[in-house]
Amino acid sequence: MPKKQTDDTRDYQNAKLRVEELRAQIAYHEHRYHVLDDPEIADGEFDKLTIELRAIEAQHSELITPDSPTQRVGGAPVETFGIVEHRVPLLSLNNAFDADGLRAWHKRASNIIERTDFAMICEPKIDGLACALVYEDGRLLTAATRGDGTRGENITQNVRTIRSIPQRITGTGLPARFEVRGEIYMTKSGFEKLNAERGKAGLPLFASPRNSAAGSVRQLDPKVTAARPLDAFWYQLGWQDGGREPATHWDVLQWLKKLNFRVNPSIQRFGTLDDVAAFCESWIERRDSLDYEIDGIVIKVDELALQRQMGAVGREPRWAIAYKFPPTQATTTLLAIQVNVGRTGTLNPFAVLDPVRIGGVTVKLATLHNEAVIHLKDVRVGDTVIVQRAGDVIPQVVGPVLSKRAANAKRFHMPTNCPVCRTPVVRGEGEVAVRCPNRQCPAQRFRLLEHFVSRGAMDIDGLGESIAFLLMERGFVQDGGDLYRLRERRDDLLAIDRFGEKSVDRLLASIDASKTRPLARVIVALGIRHVGGEVASVLATHFGSIDALIEAGIDQIVEIPGIGNVIAESVIEFFADDDSRALVEKLRAAGVNLRAEKGAAREGQLSGLTFVVTGHLERLSRDAAESLIKQYGGAVASSISKKTNYLVVGAEAGSKLEKAQKLGTTLLDEDAFAALLHENGIEI
Description:
Blueprint: H1 3-35, H2 43-59, E1 83-85, E2 95-96, H3 99-113, E3 120-126, E4 129-136, E5 139-145, E6 151-153, H4 156-159, E7 177-186, H5 188-200, H6 209-216, H7 222-226, E8 230-241, H8 249-258, E9 268-270, H9 273-286, E10 294-301, H10 304-310, E11 312-313, E12 316-317, E13 320-324, E14 328-341, E15 347-358, E16 361-367, H11 371-377, E17 384-389, E18 396-400, H12 442-452, H13 465-473, H14 490-494, H15 501-513, H16 519-525, H17 533-543, H18 546-551, H19 554-558, H20 565-576, H21 578-590, E19 610-614, H22 622-631, E20 635-636, E21 646-649, H23 655-663, E22 666-668, H24 670-679
Parallel strand pairs: 2-13, 19-20, 19-21, 21-22
Antiparallel strand pairs: 1-6, 3-9, 3-10, 4-5, 4-7, 7-8, 10-13, 11-12, 14-15, 14-17, 15-16, 17-18
Helix pairs in contact: 1-2, 16-17
């Protein structure tokens, strides 16, 4: 094989592995941020993961899959509150981090509309929880979170407790139905007061105003929400039925003000990019003057006709961008580097810091990610280090102040043995992470139990970290399967301090209720490496039962669109383990649902057909086209193969078009795609 071909093959394989690793990390952190409201890394670090993934996918478009984080908005909605389908998706925003990034966005926008003299609206980017309100006949009908952009959580009853949000609207020419979008937030002063009250009551403190706001609107008791210092700003008209349609975004904002919606008073309209850049930079220093958190400025093209003309790419509008502020930083001393063990056995180093105040919060610990990052930054114990709270959430060590380094400072090395069970650690080929291979490691078992009961898995209410630790410490449970035998130990539970009859019975009832969770949630709960909610749903739909998945060979798994070798090998490895199979049998004996719902694999007019969608579509976004195909029973693949029936081709199609032409795959432009749908009784 020629050397160049060998190098190209090696580069492609490396890119594929890195893409799968990045997707696993991003999906995990998106879930913690959007669903659990409990992020583990700072916004800046998350942005770097996303940017790296986008760069690789841009270079290797054949690696783009429908379940890639770049093709979605955020985490799946939590079904506890009920689900609201968004009529028009709530899109996410691309980011610019400096004036050059703004200029690049402005140039792209100008090229699309073939003009440079368009007005722009600048809005403070509120760091809260995105929300959509629907009004019918002037009355508030529903309130929903962003969720995954197309489906959100129904938080109507809790939102009604926020006094600044209109319950009823009157006025001439009011649309019969319309949707308003905005951000719910908690004030800084309210956050400090709330934490002070929780501290006096001996309750855990909230991490940030954003987390507090998100948690407050997700309370099962609206009275709790009503007692929290919440407010909201509204910045967009999502859609409307009837009424006069506005011409500009500025007109929308003025209209919202007249209807008594709170519109941010700092929003301004500019005609030049220089004025926009100056406005953004001015707020970097002024952000702390506000009584609410902002993490940037959102810039939008003002004319709504131009917005429609520009459209969106993926899940991001071309007509808007978020200018992200630099994170807040401080310097302190790195006292020690310690290591904890995650649920998959990954050893995770973290920094123990001389306490320092950053953005009004005392920081004692910070993330260090992995040994490679530590070496890359050359961080050593005893160093004076720069610490930042990117996004004002999770602190991270940026790097050392080398001029203050002691002469005897030593490089950090990961331990050769697990710090908890002392088993020799392993590092997979091509992997950055070091792992403890002992599945009986107490730290892994605890983190797995914590994961098993979490919202995205079996969602066992009332079984938090402290109770999970207590149950394991007392020897009541060894894994998630043992939870279903706790009813036999009710008297033992009642003997534990602070465990009354009502709390024990609620816990047992919640455990019993979890037996009916969908198979996809059970697969998530098992804790298979690289298998998150989306992959679990695909596996559950394809195989239909846990037994079929257990018996599947690697070839059967990798033939599923969107599933690669890394995930397939991880599934095979997991079920080859005796303890994993024993856990499944415990679940089976307890009556936990281990089969997919009948009809989970949709049947419809497009059943038996496989589509690939590429390029930029005008009438439908790529995501919308793929969702439509799936809705009517068709399969959507991420790459062209002999099994592909149709390639739907939009503008700027790349290598997929070339491969389809070589294989003789039927090509459909947007008109032909619409015609095919029409022939099958499907209207766009």
